[in-house]
Amino acid sequence: MNGNVLIVDDERLMRVSLENQLKKDGYNVKSTKTPIEGLKLIEEEDFDVVIADLKLPEMDGIQFLKEVKKQSQGMVVIIMTAYGTLESAVTAMKEGAYDFIAKPFSTEELIIKIQRALKYKDTAAEVLRLRKEVQGQYGYDNIIGKSGSMLKILETVDTISDRDTTVLIRGESGTGKELIAGAIHYNSNRREGPFIKLSCATLNREMLESELFGHEKGAFTGAVKMRRGRFELADGGSIFLDDVDDIPLEMQVKLLRVLQEKEFERVGGEETLSVNVRVICATKKNLKQLVEERRFREDLYYRLNVITIDLPPMRTRKGDIPLLVNYFLKKHALHQGAPIPDVSQEALDVLISHDWPGNVRELENVIEHALAFSTQAGITLESLPRYLKKHETFANVFTPDLSNATRINLEETIDEVETKLIQWAYEKSNGNQVRMAEMLSIPRTTLRNKMTKLHMPT
Ligand SMILES: Nc1ncnc2c1ncn2[C@@H]1O[C@H](COP(=O)(O)OP(=O)(O)OP(=O)(O)O)[C@@H](O)[C@H]1O
Ligand SMILES: [Mg+2]
Prior knowledge:
By secondary structure, this protein is an alpha/beta fold. The chain has 20 helices and 14 strands. The protein has four domains: 129 residues, 3-Layer(aba) Sandwich (Rossmann fold); 163 residues, P-loop containing nucleotide triphosphate hydrolases (Rossmann fold); 75 residues, Orthogonal Bundle (Helicase, Ruva Protein, domain 3), CATH 1.10.8.60; 60 residues, Arc Repressor Mutant, subunit A (Orthogonal Bundle), CATH 1.10.10.60.
């Protein structure tokens, strides 16, 4: 394993003899007496190892080392030190030298160090290559989810990223539509190109048209300058049209044309522009139904609906909640430089049983809140926002309709309610009596007594 070696030493005898011996051993060697020239050589040629003396004219070895690292972070540098200057050797190592060798040394000693450095370099390159490969394949580190539906989505993203087809992403608010759109773009061969986003929701027709396609100077009052639209800006990359259902009917024709012909004109412009853009859309609504209600063009619908990704609401993939809790805790704790707190079982239970109408976004907000209110004990029930802890008021569920009743049997009614509540706890805990007692806030013996009294199996 022979490589390219650069020697920087102002002592001529040392330099020349090292060079000759290393050459004899089959290395490609260059040498110089000045660090300035050394830096120039490094710029011109790809060296595997640089061997530099600690004492050099113009700048000392440490300074030289810093410059080398600035130029090429991964460069392997071995520093030669004079006998008895261990301290500077330590400094050199701290500054990123790979190794040091104390003078006087034999060529064999140096060659062993060079060999080791070369081997290290190869391994480092291999690790880097493998890491890149893994990232390329599964580079979805920030998309959390092990549920079947999420895995399927990631698989779809993987297969379709490199195809230029339009993608329609459907899902409730906060389910990760934008996240997935980004994953598609950054996993595609357009990743070096722009990723341009636009929400079609809040814009009126004129503004939306000008945002999408740009306008010429003087196209309308206020158009004092020519302005490029998002489609132009996205050329060579992808455009993400959020809330695509909100595009007014008259504008839908224009969008259809871009999708089909990849052509459009700026507002007020004559020139037809053509772009190479991949379109990713998102909607929270049921487009099919909008088509039926004639609020969305059918032809556009079919054009957008080539590949559809349906993001599941959080409540249908509760198994992912602990993963997401962990992920957001890490994310926000690290951000604040705080340690990652434990989450009590009770708190986790509440998080799992909540319905999450705001989906992943709501969960993330709750975790941020909980982190702010966590204590020495970590995240407990007390750390959670109030609204989560508000259990169903059972009074509502079990209030009998008494409007037409003239008399009831109190004992029996209470027994009935009690049975229902115990059954609820039984089902939720899979019959685990310790958990049931906790859930019902009664001692376990009381629970057993009640179950016996109500003729429930214990
Ligand atoms: N599977 C996931 N893993 C990790 N973070 C997620 C996941 N899904 C969503 N998020 C995070 O939740 C937040 C909301 O996601 P995003 O903005 O993509 O949702 P959305 O569907 O576009 O919502 P909206 O319809 O309201 O625009 C973001 O911070 C996003 O990073
Ligand atoms: Mg969004």
